[in-house]
Amino acid sequence: MGNNYDIILIGLVAVFLILRLRSVLGKRTGNEQPPARDPFTPPAPPTTPRVGDASQGNDNVVPLPTANAPAPRQSSPTSGPGGIRATVMPTATPGVAAIRAADPAFEPIGFTGGARAAFTAIVEAFARGDTGSLKPLLDSATYSSFEAAIRGRIERNETAETTLIGFEASDIAAAEMQGPNAVVTVRFVSEQINVVRNADGQIVDGNPNEVQKVVDLWTFRRDTTSGDPNWQLIKTESEG
Fold it and tell me: Is 44 helix (H, G, I), strand (E, B) or coil?
C-alpha cells in the first residue's frame, strides 16, 4: 500500500457468478485438467445469477502503485510471485505514456499486481454475496449488476462456489486518459473451479473436478487530479 501503490482493496469483492457470470466476467478457453488441490475460496453461500457487463460510472476503489516508476515496458514479460506474466501490450503503450505524463508515479507492472489482488477480493466477495464489501469498490452501474445477480441467486436458493486456483497472466490491454481520469483495462487469465448448487445441494451447473481457464477484461479508473490513490472497477467483460 502507501507509496508502493499496493492495492487499497477496501474489500474488493466478487466471485464469478460461476458459469453464468462467465458471460460477463470471463469465458472458458479449454485446457481443463483436474485440480491438484482445493485452494483458497471457501464455498459461497446461496447466490448465482447472471450479471450483464457493467458500464462506466462513478469512481470507486482499487489503489494501484504510485511511486517513482520506471518507464513502462512494451510487452516485456515480468514474472511476479508464482511466475505470473505481467506486460504492457503494444496497443496500450501510448495510453500508459499518457497516464504517466499526468501521474509520474504510475507504474504499470506494479499496477497489475494490485489489480490481481482486487480481482481476487472482488471475485471471492461476490461468491459470498457480500454486497457491503463490494459497494465501495465498484461504480454505481457495476455494483447494480453485481447486486442484482446476488439477489437473483438468493431468490432461486442457489449457492455459487468458486475456487480461484491462480493466475497465468495479468496484462495491461488498454489504457487512456479521459479528461483527468486514468482508465486502464487489465486482461486476466486465471484458472478457476466453478459450481452452482440448488437448495438441495445438487449441482445445477459446473463441475467440482474441472479446472477452467477463464479470460476476463476488467477496467479500472482513477482521477489523477485527486489525492486519493484508489482505483475503481467500472467495467467487467469477457474477451472476444
Answer: coil
* Cβ pair 25, 215 in contact under 8 A: no
How far apart are alpha carbons 103 and 84 in whole angstroms?
Answer: 26
- Cβ-based neighbour number of residue 91 at 10 Å: 12
Reading the chain (240 residues) residue by residue, the pLDDT tens digits are 444 444 433 333 333 333 333 333 344 444 444 333 332 233 333 333 323 333 333 333 444 433 333 333 333 445 555 689 999 999 999 999 999 999 999 999 999 999 999 999 999 999 889 999 998 889 999 999 999 999 999 999 999 999 999 999 999 999 999 999 999 999 999 999 989 999 999 999 999 999 999 999 999 999 999 988 889 999 999 875
Strand segments, DSSP code E, in the chain are 159-178, 181-197, 203-206, 212-223, 232-238
Please identify which residue in the block is written with the cell numbers 470471463: 26
Question: Do 88 and 164 form a contact (C-beta atoms < 8 A)?
Answer: no
Closest to 214 in 3D by CA, of 22, 53, 49: 22
Cα dihedral 35, 38, 114, 44, rounded to 10, equals 120
Give the H/E segment covering residue 100. helix 93-102
Query: In whole angstroms, what is the distance from residue 108 CA to residue 93 CA?
Result: 10
Q: What is the pTM of this model?
A: 0.68
Closest CA to 126 of 106, 103, 154, 98: 154
